[in-house]
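thought: user wants a sequence for this fold. calling inverse folding tool.
action: design(structure=
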C-alpha cells in the first residue's frame, strides 16, 4: 500500500522465507524507517485472496492508524482498509 509518502507491505507465507525477505528489506538502503508492526502465525484464508502481489493506493491518511498499531491490531486495521483501496492486482512494476 502506498499513500504518496509511505509504503506498507503485508507479507505472508512460510516463516523462513518471509523472515528472510523482511530482513533483506530492513537492510536495503532504498528502504528507510523500516518498522515491523506484527509477526505471527495467520490461520485464516490468504488476506489478498491468493494473489502474489497487489499494489494498492491510498488517497487519504488511512495508513496513519496502521502505522501506529502493533501486533494483530495492525493486521485488523489493514484488512479493514483493503476494500476501499484502489488495488492493481496485475501490477508487476519496479
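)
observation: tool returned 94 residues.
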Amino acid at each position: 500500500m502506498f499513500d504518496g509518502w509511505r509504503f506498507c507491505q503485508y507479507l505472508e507465507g512460510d516463516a523462513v522465507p518471509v523472515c528472510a525477505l523482511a530482513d533483506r528489506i530492513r537492510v536495503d538502503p532504498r528502504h528507510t524507517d523500516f518498522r515491523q508492526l506484527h509477526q505471527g502465525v495467520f490461520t485464516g484464508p490468504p488476506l489478498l485472496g491468493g494473489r502474489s502481489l497487489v499494489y494498492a493506493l491510498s488517497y487519504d491518511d488511512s495508513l496513519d492508524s496502521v502505522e501506529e498499531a502493533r501486533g494483530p491490531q495492525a493486521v485488523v486495521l489493514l484488512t479493514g482498509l483493503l476494500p476501499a483501496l484502489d488495488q492493481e492486482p496485475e501490477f508487476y512494476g519496479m
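thought: summarizing for user.
answer: Here is the designed sequence. The longest strand covers residues 55-57.
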